[in-house]
């Protein structure tokens, strides 16, 4: 087993760069090859090769849906920095779906009200109808122990999308009854800025598509847990349902992960500067790193940094907002987030258009709300771009 196997004593940057990317033992290649084979030669029937390869988790290899060396490398890397065991999927939604399948039919699930749109759709259109799970959406600010009494799963996002609301993970851990699973979608913070498992959560999910891969060229997801029984169930689900990521996507995501710390530090620095710049222009800005953010203190306590996402309100209505967005040149007008290039979008008519207006307005998604995913370009160019697009 490699020296990197017990990664806990390494600094984060060392884990990110070395865990799961150990030189190939047979050739010495510094970048391990992408393992494309779908099947593996057995020495005698039922005896699997690769049992000693850490990327097979002691199981060896037989068929690539069940276990793949490149995928195993990625899972070890993400598991090491999120402090649990990682199971990867072909998208963030597939990872969330696997978590929902942890519940028996008839279970009660309590979900934070301004959850990611895709999660909302999965819960209301699939989990509630096909899996017979009872879904309730609630504002977690005012949650009581009475409200969670008969709940088997709590679904939390912090920060939320796009209102960037922060919920105390510790408080939710205390509130959750025994045998209730607390799942945290940690996509917005990334494992660099927040580690929910260390705060007591049971499962963390990521849309690897966003900060973890970080280059807008892979759709992929992952679930990470510190509990052995949950891990075994997720592994079983991964193989049985088969929504697995391709070796090439795992290779790209592993390569993206190596610079996570550098990318997160810079996007946060850029985001902070832009938040201040927009505030100076007299605009209402939502960014957890600003002292006027309603949950700034909680963010400071549970996160190591405030991330690269900003929301703010343009002066005017939907037309002014569309005009502003169309004038941007460095910021690309697109959905998604978490990559090296800066993106801007209007949630009301893009990412959150599926949510009825009364519902979205309740969580602050007005027609003139703009969401920025701040990337790694030169800060002066980003501010100049916003400046020219804001000009009437
Ligand atoms: C994008 C996203 C997802 C879904 O992930 P996909 O990889 O697109 O399936 C889930 N949660 C959050 C917070 C996201 O931003």
TrEMBL record:
GO terms for biological process: cysteine biosynthetic process via cystathionine; transsulfuration. One of its GO terms (cellular component) is cytoplasm. The modification N6-(pyridoxal phosphate)lysine is found at residue 210. Its cofactor is pyridoxal 5'-phosphate. One of its GO terms (molecular function) is pyridoxal phosphate binding. It is an enzyme of class 4 (lyase). Signal peptide: none annotated. Its EC number is 4.4.1.1. Gene3D superfamilies: Aspartate Aminotransferase, domain 1, Type I PLP-dependent aspartate aminotransferase-like (Major domain). Keywords: Amino-acid biosynthesis, Cysteine biosynthesis, Pyridoxal phosphate. The keyword Secreted does not apply. Pathway: Amino-acid biosynthesis; L-cysteine biosynthesis; L-cysteine from L-homocysteine and L-serine: step 2/2. InterPro entries: Cys/Met-Metab_PyrdxlP-dep_enz, PyrdxlP-dep_Trfase, PyrdxlP-dep_Trfase_major, PyrdxlP-dep_Trfase_small. Belongs to the trans-sulfuration enzymes family. This is cystathionine gamma-lyase.
């Amino acid at each position: 087993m490699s020296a990197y196997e017990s990664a806990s004593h390494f600094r984060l940057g060392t884990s990110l760069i070395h865990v799961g990317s150990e030189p190939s033992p047979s050739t010495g290649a510094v970048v391990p090859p992408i393992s494309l084979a779908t099947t593996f030669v057995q020495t005698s029937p039922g005896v699997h090769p690769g049992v000693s390869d850490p990327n097979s988790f002691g199981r060896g290899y037989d068929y690539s849906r069940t276990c793949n060396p490149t995928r195993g490398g990625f899972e070890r890397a993400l598991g090491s920095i999120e402090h649990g065991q990682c199971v990867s999927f072909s998208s963030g939604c597939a990872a969330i779906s696997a978590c929902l399948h942890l519940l028996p039919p008839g279970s009660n699930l309590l979900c934070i009200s301004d959850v990611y749109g895709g999660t909302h759709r999965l819960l209301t259109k699939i989990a509630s109808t096909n899996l017979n799970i009872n879904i309730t959406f609630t504002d977690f600010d005012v949650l009581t122990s009475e409200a969670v009494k008969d709940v088997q799963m709590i679904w939390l996002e912090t920060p939320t999308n796009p209102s960037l609301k922060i919920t105390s993970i510790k408080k939710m851990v205390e509130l959750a009854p025994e045998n209730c699973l607390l799942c945290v979608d940690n996509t917005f913070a990334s494992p660099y800025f927040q580690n929910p498992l260390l705060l007591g959560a049971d499962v963390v999910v990521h849309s690897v598509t966003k900060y973890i891969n970080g280059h807008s060229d892979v759709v992929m997801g992952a679930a990470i847990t510190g509990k052995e029984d949950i891990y075994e169930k997720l592994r079983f689900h991964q193989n049985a349902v088969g929504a697995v990521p391709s070796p090439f996507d795992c290779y790209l995501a592993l390569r993206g992960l190596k610079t996570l710390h550098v990318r997160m530090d810079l996007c946060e620095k850029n985001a902070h500067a832009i938040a201040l710049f927009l505030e100076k222009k007299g605009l209402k800005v939502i960014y957890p790193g600003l002292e006027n953010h309603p949950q700034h203190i909680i963010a400071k306590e549970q996160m190591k940094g405030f991330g690269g996402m900003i929301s703010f309100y343009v002066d005017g209505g939907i037309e002014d907002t569309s005009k502003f967005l169309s004038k941007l040149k460095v910021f690309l007008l697109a959905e998604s987030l978490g990559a090296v290039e800066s993106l801007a979008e209007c949630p009301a008519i893009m990412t959150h258009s599926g949510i009825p207006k009364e519902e979205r307005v309740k969580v602050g998604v007005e027609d003139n709300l703009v969401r920025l995913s701040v990337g790694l370009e030169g800060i002066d160019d980003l501010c100049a771009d916003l400046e020219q697009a804001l000009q009437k």
